[in-house]
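User: Okay, second chain of the day. Same drill as before: sequence in, structure tokens out.
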Amino acid sequence: MAVMVPPLVTMPSNSSEVPVFAVVLAVLLVGALLGYVVKYFIKPRSSLSFSSTVLIGILGSALGSLLPLALARTGHTPTFVPLILGLLLGTSLVFLIAERVARPAPPDPRELIAEGESTKVEFKSTARHNVRTGQRDDRIEAAVAKTVAGFLNARGGALVIGVDDQGEVLGLADDLKYMKHPDVDRYELWLSDFLTRCLGPAALAEVTISFPEVVGGQVCLIVAAPSRRPVYLRPAKSEGVLFYARIGNSTRELPVDQAVSYCADRFPARRLRP
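Assistant: Same drill. Structure tokens below.
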């Protein structure tokens, strides 16, 4: 009598399968790496958070993988170079889109003028011209740099040039006459160079300059985002540096002891250096 031998039951081996958590961890690591590589080369001072940067890297990797897949469909074997190139291009594209979407809309100058001066808004009649003496005045120019530095070191703010303290629009004619060519392009070029000399190029990256038309004329709108590190003012005729902060409705110079305490509360410790 034949003895029936039951077939051996073989269990599927999972030895070659990669655990799910390992896949997730690898995706997160690659996303973080690509996100920060792209962020470093495109905009190191971007305000995007760590989680946003990782997500950008993951989405960019998914988008960038379409390039080697397209090569594979045409019969070409994808190599390391197009793979990396695709991942970087995809991540860069997603990063630029995210930066565009995350960028706050500029404030409406008409609303700023109507609401008046506040902790985050200041008016100045001119940026170069002294309305009392009728001449260009270094002190007037320095006051602009001090205000911008104060906003950067606080919570940000907007400086409107061409508007007096009462909110009356004066325009930019008094300042434009000091330009070789009296137009807003030259005005912006001078203002950018001036702020770069006084505050440094890194600070200028947090500043946007525009020239909106409002009822009564054209004004200059300088919007300063909160800086992620202390911004020091370097006066033109001084070797030292000064620290200004927006406190209430005014911009104040802080002595060394107060500046140290202020920076300790306002900025991370690793960024407390001139």
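The radius of gyration is 28 Å.

User: Thanks, on to the next one.
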